[in-house]
Write a structure and sequence with these properties.
mainly alpha, 2 domains, two-stranded parallel sheet, 8 helices, about 10% strand, globular, Sugar transferase, transmembrane helix
Length: about 240
């Protein structure tokens, strides 16, 4: 759910309520030690790839970000939008995007959902709208091309996110994960992921949750690289993007 302006003004990590995350003790059973060691190596390798990839991405994307910032500023308002999302271990962080919505986005959404039952049903199922009145003309373009998410490379470099992982969600979405909330919070949210290469907005919310949890269960360096390579054609094809 993308509610621009809902958490503007907050800075730094924000502690969110804990939703049943399992504690990791210092004394794991002996038979679990190899698995823990393997997991530590995998996580370290992925973090190295995150740092290298985000640094390269920011360097390459900086001219694009500058042009987008100037174009968005011409429409009025700030070029950059930030909102608190749920991070690893349930810790909130400021997630950055290029602004794609009008300044009165929340008022427009409330008015539409109250007056249009079909739009309200679509919002309830997907937490997105195919014909969203909040989005500016330029916003439609940068969302279709995923250019609005380029600032999240900074989140990846900082360690808030990974290049690959579950979708970064706002706190009130966490309840929709139910018993799977702990699995979501066991990993860093991603700039891309299974959802990105599996139809994106065409997926209903239940499918999105299932894909996020599946990634937690099958996360390897090889699958990480596979999803990154699959993301490029998915973005170019604009599959499920709106």
């Amino acid at each position: 759910m993308r509610r621009e302006g809902a958490y503007a003004g907050s800075v730094g990590p924000v502690a969110l309520p804990v939703y049943g995350t399992a504690e990791i003790t210092d004394f794991a059973p002996a038979e679990a030690q190899p698995a823990l060691a393997e997991s530590a190596v995998r996580n370290a390798a992925i973090r190295v790839l995150d740092v290298l990839g985000s640094m390269a991405g920011l360097l390459l994307a900086s001219p694009i970000l500058l042009v987008l910032a100037l174009l968005i500023r011409r429409d009025g308002g700030k070029a950059l939008f930030s909102q608190i999302r749920v991070g690893k271990d349930g810790v909130g962080f400021q997630c950055y995007k290029m602004r794609s919505m009008a300044s009165d986005a929340e008022a427009r959404l409330s008015s539409l959902l109250e007056s249009d039952p079909q739009a309200a049903a679509e919002w309830a199922e997907h937490r997105k709208l195919r014909n969203d009145p909040r989005i500016t003309p330029l916003g439609h373009f940068i969302r279709k091309t995923s250019l609005d998410e380029l600032p999240q490379l900074w989140n990846v470099l900082k360690g808030d996110m990974s290049l690959v992982g579950p979708r970064p969600i706002v706190p009130d979405e966490l309840a929709m994960y139910g018993k799977d909330a702990a699995a979501y919070m066991a990993q860093r949210p991603g700039l891309t992921g299974l959802w990105q290469v599996s139809g994106r907005s065409d997926c209903d919310y239940e499918t999105r949750v299932a894909l996020d949890i599946e990634w937690n269960n099958r996360r390897t360096v090889l699958s990480y690289l596979e999803i990154i390579f699959k993301t490029v054609p998915a973005v170019l094809a604009k599959d499920g993007a709106y």
